[in-house]
Prior knowledge:
By secondary structure, this protein is an alpha/beta fold. It contains 10 helices and 6 strands; from the N terminus they run βαβαβαβαβαβααααα. Strands 2-1-3-4-5-6 form a 6-stranded parallel beta sheet, sandwiched between helices. Strand 5, helix 5 (109-120) and strand 6 form a beta-alpha-beta unit. Helix 2 runs parallel beside helix 3 and helix 7 packs across helix 10. The radius of gyration is 17 Å and the shape is globular.
Amino acid sequence: MSTRILLADDHALVRSGIRSLLTAMPGIEVVAEADDGNAAIELTEKHKPDVVVMDIAMKGMNGLEAVRRLRADHPTIKFLMLSMYGSEEYVMQALNAGANGYLFKDSAAYELEKALIEVIHGRQYLDSHISKEALDLYMKKVTQDGTPVEVLTPRQREILQLIAEGNNTKEIAYRLNVSAKTIETHRSQLMERLEIRDVPGLVRYAIRTGLTTSEK
């Protein structure tokens, strides 16, 4: 039987290229495509893929948040994260969210196939350019200092991402169908919990932790 893949990336051309690579692999079937995290969740519920290949940085809902929400209800599905960024914090956020693998977008086609084989068989896969030694050191630091983003609620992470993407209070309130006062309260709570005193600081934190990127 073929392995059923759901592909999620918010750039149509990138998605098309990855789909072409996937469909050229023996035993691989792309059953659905999504352009943000919300669509990925909806299509995962509908198609029940074996593996979700997910971009980290997507507007609407990023890949990290989508994996967090899907992992609890779909423990048997494997998640392979794609990213242009390889900092230890990005990798750890993906693994903590429930990802089985982490691969750079500029990797060769053979490494994408290798990553899929590994996660399909229940093994963890990290891009060959990721330093395991640096990751181990980062994990030790996280164990000592904690990871504030993990203690944020899903709504707080969603609002933090929207702030980082340049949306003002009224735009976020309209998008989430809540009052502007509610958004202001969430923003104040975010600053207090993360010990950050201004919006530019929130933006830098969201980029550093993989909730969004400077290109979004």
